[in-house]
Amino acid sequence: MERNPREDAKPEASGLTMRTFECKCCGIEINYEYKGRTPPYEPSIVFLEDGYFRRDPFADVKRPLFIGADCNVCSRPVCAQPTCSLFFTKRFCAACAKQYAEGFPLELRPDLEKLQAMPVAPATFDVDYGIRTSS
Ligand SMILES: [Zn+2]
Ligand SMILES: [Zn+2]
């Protein structure tokens, strides 16, 4: 299928609304269309985590771009860059991954070292992140 420029201008036409994903680690802002495990572009793909997705305008529509996901510990959205988050059975933001570094297998050490420090303090379980504003 050819890329349709009108589709880019009007994502609602596909039933998906563009929202803005903001990585809490590096601050990057990326528009996304879908959050979940089964992006509607290709029903046979099921991801291991609820991620933020958009179609890749430069690639096959069936290969959605994985932008990032919510940290499983502190619920902050973090992008998929190796400096911002790590996936080990679930998604960890840089701060939480560092906090729980002892629990990761040795093979993940190089990945842990790539993570940059978060500009915000690491979350603990008693912070108010338990209360998430519904959108
Ligand atoms: Zn990031
Ligand atoms: Zn976290």
Automatic annotation (TrEMBL):
The name this protein goes by in its record: Cysteine-rich DPF motif domain-containing protein 1
A Pfam entry, by short name: C6_DPF
Family statement: Belongs to the CDPF1 family.
Limits of the Cysteine-rich DPF motif domain: 21-112
